[in-house]
Amino acid sequence: MKFPTFCYFAVLSAAMAAAPLAHAESDPSGSTSAQTTAEPATPVANAPHAIPAEKNWRFGVGLGYGQRTNPLIQSEDIPVVVDLDIAWFGERWFFDNFDLGFALVDNSRVTTNVVARLNSDRAFFGKTNTRYVNFTVTAGGGEVPMPPPSSPGAGFNPPVELKVPDRDYAVELGLEMLFDGEWGHATLRAFHDVSNTHDGYEISADYSYRWVRGRFTIAPSVGVAYKSAELSDYYWGVHADEVQPTLQGYQVDGGIGWEAGLRTSYYITKSMRVAVSANYERLTDNIALSPLVAEPYVIGYFAGLAWQF
Amino acid sequence: MRVRLTLLIASSFMALPAAGADPAPVRLNVKPLLCLLDKNATSCAVTFDIRWKSALAAEYCLNDEAQPLPLRCWPKALSGEHRQDRLVTQDFFFWMSPATGNERVAEAKIEVLRVGSTDRRRERRSRHVWDVL
Q: Which of A13, A98, A250, A277 could bridge A263 with an S-S bond, Cβ 3.0-4.6 Å?
């Protein structure tokens, strides 16, 4: 199920050549027509007005406490104390928190972007530790790890290093299609490695819906993602040159994982809100069985204050 | 001469409080002060709870920026309450003024925040590990 890179670029090139930007951002005509439909049902109302154009820059910061668990063995969870939101949106180009994108199509039904991003699986490998395991010889002749000796002289062999292998960041290029309506928001994405790091791809779909009541917003979301064998094996497999007495080889096939999340905000002022979010991601079954994986899931949560400037 | 001097002192003394004190210590309290609009919403339908208090009993009027005439005036009073249904599409002020004149002796700004965007790119959710908001 490998998606050849040249096919990938052919698709992108064709899409870029054929698709005019049918619906520019902040379409004033659309906004105005929407405004004029609002008839005052109550004694007083402001005169209809165009929605002001949004700033190109978006800068926000969240301060609080949260973390994302790390599914890797002998690893540390990833603390989230500060969450920066930095984005810039031009007519077609945009930068959104290290995603660089270009709008190919933007109309009343869909926005299609070509996006370059960094693979996020690598982030877990930045929070790993090296552990030393003691071995002893069993009656059958095989070696099994044993806990550190409780008394001097109880160990038989010197400790053996157990180290999670290093992994590199991968630059991925892909297409994303954004849909929305009264029913909520949906996204389809397909990304392929263009940095010769894992040479794999990922296809994902997610859906979210936001309710607004008074000062409160709540947005549940669900998503599924297929990760190819190449991508899964590069990050989560144990390759032949990484096999150790403490780490057996393992090849990961492609598979489907899923996630569900909830994001809530209570706006104190126009620019400050209390933000609480939680997310559960289930790794693919094949990844979950890897010797590198201690937990088959990733749980993320955060609670704090967020400012939008 | 003595009469004139007495009148001058008396008039000066009477003018002092008006010149030196807060001319209208009125407090205006409005709830809610913030209206959230989702992406496709054009207005908030809000019932405002408006309360005011004054240290000096006087005739005050409640005004709305979208209305040329006051919403309501009170006869000489120290406080007042009012509920106002309103569709809100943009930031605006409620304010209190004397019954005669347009001076704003107290005001409250009602703000509108659009939490969604018509630009779908601004609504995209990244899948970064550190993205929690």
A: A277
